[in-house]
Amino acid sequence: MSTATRTAAEVAGLVADPELPMLTLADLGILRDVEETPAGRVVVTITPTYSGCPAMEAIREDLIEALRGAGFADAEVRTVLTPAWTTDWISDAGREKLTAAGISPPG
Question: What is the mean pLDDT of the chain?
Fold first, then answer.
């Protein structure tokens, strides 16, 4: 069991997107679920912005590194394609960050 001061969901939610580093995975809406089992295993579920997204391996590695660094030694990242990601999943905070970076967020 982890002795981390943050939950696994908090840690995963703070990981930056490698292509849009002003956004976290939570801001972008690709972080779908974070489950902590009683045995201390963490399973993170992500959905790519599109099925061929080249950043998925980097995202997976960044998540594992962040979780292990926070004390969650037993972590797994799963990718799910359904439901498909939509810009509707970008959080309000994510939209504000995109605007501040000069990127027009989808309506």
Answer: 93
Is the whole-model pTM more than 0.85? yes
CA proximity to 19, closest of 89, 98, 92, 78: 98
Residue among 67, 73, 61 at smallest CA distance from 13 = 67
Scanning 1-107, the segments in alpha helix (DSSP H) are 8-13, 25-28, 56-69, 92-100
Confidence of residue 105 (pLDDT cuts 50, 70, 90): confident
Residue with tokens 């309506």: 107
**Percentage of the residues of the chain whose pLDDT score is greater than 70:** 96
Listed residue (8, 45, 42) closest to 30, CA to CA? 45
SS3 content of the chain, % helix, strand, coil (to 5): 35, 15, 50
Report the candidate in 65, 59, 61 with the shortest Cα–Cα distance to residue 46: 59
Angle at 59 between CA 39 and CA 61, to 5 degrees: 60
